C-alpha cells in the first residue's frame, strides 16, 4: 500500500469505539486509514476512560490519546459525543475526524460534522490524498473518487478496506480532554445484545451465509456445524432476517454489514445486487444453489448447482475427516 | 378538555426520488449512466412514510407533511407519499443541472430552514438513500437542529411526550428514549410499507403541494465534494461450476486452500 504520511500534513482525530475493553476492529481499521494522512490522536470517553486510554496507548500508529471522563459518554449517545468531538476539533485543530463504519461511527460522525458545518464522507475505502477519498455508491456498482473542499474532513472508514492496526506495540501519550455538561435530550434505556460464541461477522476469515433457500431458522444448524469446524461466522440475507429466521445483526449487504473474508460460502442465496454489495470483495466465493440461473454464479469462483442440504453436510463430513 | 401533547403530533417525512433499487447502474465515460433509468421512491423513505401513517392511524399524529428536494420530476414521489396517507407536501425545486449533486449537508440545511415553518414534533427519514449510500442526512439534520436522533430505528413508540426508539446496532438492538422534537431514521425492519390504492392515487392528485424555489431559501447547495473519477468495480474473474460435492471440496481444499 502506498504511504503518503511523509507528504501529508493532516492531523487526524479517530473517535474510538471500545468493545469489551478493547478497541473495536472498525476503530483499528480507521486508525490505519488515518495514519496515511498524519499523526493520529484517538479519543476515548466514558466512565472508564482511563482504562480505555491505557488500551489505546498501545495501539500501533496512535501518537496521542485524548481521554474524557464522564458517564454520559457511556453507550455512545451521539447527542453527547458529537459536541465533544466538535470541542476537540476546535481546541486542537484537527484536520480530519475518522471513525470506523459501525453503528456507533455512522451515528456520531455525521452529527459532529453538522456542528462543524462540514459534509461527511461515508464509508471510505481508500485514501488518495489528504482531501481525496474513494468510496462506493449505488450498492457498490460505482467506485467514486471525491475531493473535499471542507476545512475538516469527517469520514467513516470501511473496515474491510484497511488492515487493522496492531493492538500492541504502540506508545502514545495520554492527555485529558474536559467533559462537557450532559445534553440530556436523549437517554440510554437498554442494550438487547445477541450473545454469540462465533467470531464476529465483520472480521471473520470465513463466512458462511444462508438465504431464502434455508427455508427455516432451524435449518441454520446445518451451517452452524460447518462454521464451528472452520471457526467461521454465519451470515444471512435480508430475506431470511425479515422472515425472522435469524437476528438482524447477521445481515450481510448494502444495508447490513460489509464483509470481505478469505472465503465466503453462499448457500441458497440468489445473489441480488443488495446482498452482493456487502460481500463481493471476499477473496474466494463459493455458491451453492439449486437454481443454475441464480445471478450469484456470475461472481462465484466456484459454484455447484445442487441442494445445499446435501452439499453442506457432505462438506462438513469431509472437513471432519481431513481436518480444516 | 385536557390534552396531552402526543395527540397533536405533527410528523414530517422526507422522501427522495432515486434510481429504482432493482436497476443495476452502469458507469461509462467517467459518468454514471442513470438517464432513462426507472425511478422510484427510495425504499427506506417508503418505510418512513408508512411509520408516519401508522402513527396517524393510532391517533398519535394529526398531520403528516411530506418533503422532497429535487428537480420538477421529483413531484411524483410526493404524489406517491400523499397516496399513501401524507396530508400535505412541500417540494423544494432544484434546477435539473444541480439536482443530482445536492449533498446530504445541503438537504439537511434546507430541512433545517423548513423546520421553522412546518414545526414538526418528529422528522422521519430513511436511514440511507440507495443511490449515494451516505446514510448521513438524518444525523446532519438532528445536529443542525440540536435535537436528539434515533437512527437505524426498528421500533418507535410515542408516549408521554417522549419517543422510545429501538435501534439496530452491530451486536443486536439498543433502546433509547428521546425528547421531542427529534429526528428518526427508518431501518428495514421498522415496518412493511403498504401499496397505494388506486382511489387514493386519484385523490392524491388533488392534494396541495407547496412549491419553493431552492434559491429563495438562502442555502448554498454547491457541492462540497467534487467527483474526480467514477469507475465500475473490477470485474471478478470467471469462476467454474463443479458437478459434485467431491469436486467442490477438492477445489476449495487443494486449489483455493480455504477448507
TrEMBL record, chain A:
Signal peptide coordinates: none
Names of the cofactor(s): FAD
BP-aspect Gene Ontology terms: fatty acid beta-oxidation using acyl-CoA dehydrogenase
Top-rank taxon: Eukaryota
Protein localization: Mitochondrion matrix
Coiled coil (UniProt feature): none
Keywords of the record: Electron transport, FAD, Flavoprotein, Mitochondrion, Transport
SUPFAM superfamilies: Adenine nucleotide alpha hydrolases-like, DHS-like NAD/FAD-binding domain
Matching CDD domains: ETF_alpha
Boundaries of every Electron transfer flavoprotein alpha/beta-subunit N-terminal domain copy: 12-192
Record GO terms (molecular function): electron transfer activity; flavin adenine dinucleotide binding
Protein task: The electron transfer flavoprotein serves as a specific electron acceptor for several dehydrogenases, including five acyl-CoA dehydrogenases, glutaryl-CoA and sarcosine dehydrogenase. It transfers the electrons to the main mitochondrial respiratory chain via ETF-ubiquinone oxidoreductase (ETF dehydrogenase).
Name of the protein described by the UniProt record: Electron transfer flavoprotein subunit alpha
Species annotation: Leptomonas seymouri
Automatic annotation (TrEMBL), chain B:
Xref: InterPro entries: ETF_a/b_N (IPR014730), ETF_b (IPR012255), ETF_beta_N (IPR033948), Rossmann-like_a/b/a_fold (IPR014729)
Family label: Belongs to the ETF beta-subunit/FixA family.
Name of protein: Electron transfer flavoprotein subunit beta
One GO CC term, this protein: mitochondrial matrix
Known partners and oligomeric status: Heterodimer of an alpha and a beta subunit.
Principal cellular location given in the protein's record: mitochondrion
Function of the protein: The electron transfer flavoprotein serves as a specific electron acceptor for several dehydrogenases, including five acyl-CoA dehydrogenases, glutaryl-CoA and sarcosine dehydrogenase. It transfers the electrons to the main mitochondrial respiratory chain via ETF-ubiquinone oxidoreductase (ETF dehydrogenase).
A Gene Ontology molecular function term of the record: electron transfer activity
Residue ranges of every copy of the Electron transfer flavoprotein alpha/beta-subunit N-terminal domain listed in the record: 29-221
Alphabetical GO biological process terms: carboxylic acid catabolic process
Subcellular locations according to the entry: Mitochondrion matrix
Keyword Protease (UniProt): no
High-level lineage: Eukaryota, Discoba, Euglenozoa, Kinetoplastea, Metakinetoplastina
Record carries keyword Amino-acid biosynthesis: no
Keywords: Electron transport, Mitochondrion, Transport
Species per Swiss-Prot/TrEMBL record: Leptomonas seymouri
Amino acid at each position: 500500500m502506498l504511504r503518503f504520511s511523509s507528504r501529508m500534513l493532516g492531523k487526524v482525530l479517530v473517535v474510538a469505539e471500545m468493545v469489551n475493553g478493547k478497541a473495536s476492529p472498525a476503530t483499528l481499521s480507521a486508525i490505519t486509514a488515518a495514519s496515511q494522512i498524519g499523526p493520529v490522536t484517538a479519543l476515548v470517553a466514558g466512565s472508564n476512560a482511563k482504562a480505555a486510554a491505557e488500551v489505546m496507548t498501545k495501539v500501533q500508529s496512535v501518537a496521542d490519546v485524548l481521554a474524557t471522563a464522564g458517564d454520559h459518554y457511556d453507550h455512545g449517545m451521539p447527542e453527547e459525543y458529537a459536541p465533544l468531538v466538535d470541542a476537540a476539533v476546535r481546541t486542537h485543530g484537527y484536520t480530519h475526524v475518522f471513525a470506523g463504519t459501525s453503528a456507533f461511527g455512522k451515528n456520531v460522525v455525521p452529527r459532529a460534522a453538522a456542528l462543524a458545518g462540514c459534509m461527511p464522507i461515508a464509508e471510505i475505502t481508500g485514501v488518495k490524498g489528504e482531501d481525496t477519498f474513494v468510496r462506493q455508491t449505488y450498492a457498490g456498482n460505482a467506485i467514486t473518487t471525491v475531493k473535499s473542499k471542507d476545512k475538516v474532513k469527517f469520514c467513516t472508514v470501511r473496515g474491510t478496506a484497511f488492515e487493522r492496526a496492531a493492538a500492541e506495540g504502540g506508545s502514545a501519550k495520554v492527555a485529558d480532554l474536559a467533559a462537557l455538561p450532559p445534553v440530556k435530550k436523549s437517554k440510554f434505556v437498554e442494550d438487547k445484545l445477541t450473545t454469540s460464541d462465533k467470531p464476529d461477522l465483520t472480521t471473520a476469515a470465513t463466512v458462511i451465509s444462508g438465504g431464502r433457500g434455508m427455508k427455516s431458522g432451524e435449518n441454520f444448524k446445518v451451517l452452524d456445524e460447518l462454521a464451528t469446524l472452520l471457526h467461521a461466522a454465519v451470515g444471512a440475507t435480508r430475506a431470511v432476517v425479515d422472515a425472522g429466521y435469524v437476528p438482524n445483526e447477521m445481515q450481510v449487504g448494502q444495508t447490513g454489514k460489509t464483509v470481505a473474508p478469505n472465503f465466503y460460502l453462499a448457500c441458497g442465496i440468489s445473489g441480488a445486487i443488495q446482498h452482493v454489495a456487502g460481500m463481493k470483495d471476499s477473496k474466494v466465493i463459493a455458491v451453492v444453489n439449486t437454481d443454475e440461473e441464480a445471478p450469484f454464479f456470475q461472481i462465484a469462483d466456484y459454484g455447484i448447482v445442487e441442494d445445499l442440504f446435501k452439499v453442506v453436510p457432505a462438506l462438513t463430513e469431509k472437513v471432519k475427516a481431513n481436518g480444516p | 378538555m385536557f390534552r396531552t401533547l402526543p395527540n397533536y403530533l405533527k410528523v414530517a417525512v422526507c422522501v427522495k426520488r432515486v434510481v429504482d433499487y432493482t436497476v443495476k447502474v452502469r458507469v461509462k465515460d467517467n459518468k454514471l449512466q442513470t438517464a432513462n433509468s426507472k425511478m422510484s421512491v427510495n425504499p427506506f423513505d417508503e418505510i418512513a412514510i408508512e411509520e408516519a401513517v401508522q402513527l396517524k392511524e393510532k391517533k398519535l399524529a394529526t398531520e403528516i407533511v411530506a418533503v422532497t428536494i429535487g428537480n420538477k420530476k421529483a413531484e411524483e414521489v410526493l404524489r406517491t407519499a400523499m397516496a399513501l396517507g401524507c396530508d400535505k407536501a412541500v417540494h423544494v425545486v432544484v434546477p435539473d443541472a444541480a439536482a443530482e449533486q445536492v449533498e446530504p449537508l445541503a438537504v439537511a440545511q434546507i430541512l433545517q430552514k423548513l423546520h421553522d415553518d412546518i414545526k414538526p414534533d418528529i422528522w422521519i427519514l430513511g436511514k440511507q438513500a440507495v443511490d449515494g449510500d451516505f446514510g448521513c442526512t438524518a444525523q446532519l439534520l438532528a445536529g443542525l437542529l440540536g435535537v436528539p436522533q434515533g437512527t437505524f430505528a426498528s421500533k418507535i413508540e410515542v408516549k408521554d411526550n417522549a419517543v422510545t426508539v429501538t435501534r439496530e446496532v452491530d451486536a443486536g438492538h439498543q433502546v433509547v428514549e428521546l425528547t421531542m422534537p427529534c429526528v428518526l431514521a427508518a431501518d428495514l425492519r421498522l415496518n412493511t410499507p403498504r401499496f397505494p390504492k388506486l382511489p387514493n392515487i386519484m385523490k392524491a392528485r388533488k392534494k396541495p403541494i407547496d412549491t419553493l424555489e431552492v434559491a429563495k431559501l438562502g442555502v448554498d447547495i454547491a457541492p462540497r465534494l467534487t467527483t474526480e473519477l467514477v469507475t465500475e468495480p473490477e470485474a471478478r474473474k470467471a469462476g467454474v461450476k463443479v458437478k459434485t460435492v467431491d469436486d467442490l471440496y477438492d477445489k476449495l481444499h487443494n486449489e483455493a486452500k480455504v477448507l
